[in-house]
Specification:
4 helices; single chain
Length: 64
């Protein structure tokens, strides 16, 4: 869409890359596992204190 608004030319490889990205995103969403329902605040707290979330947060807070 940006190419249309900015009046740029996108070549074949650019279009192929966009199509591949869109297809990959759709496939990822379709095959992702479902989330379980959360009913209490304690369940949210349990998920928030998982080590992976801390590592992920620390990585991006230090990097940026």
């Amino acid at each position: 869409m940006s190419a249309h608004f900015l009046q740029e030319d996108i070549h074949v490889l650019g279009k192929l890359g966009c199509a591949t990205c869109l297809l990959g995103s759709v496939l990822l969403v379709l095959h992702a596992p479902g989330d379980k329902d959360i009913h209490t605040i304690d369940e949210i707290l349990h998920l928030a204190i998982q080590p992976c979330l801390f590592l992920f947060s620390a990585h991006f807070s230090i990097k940026y």
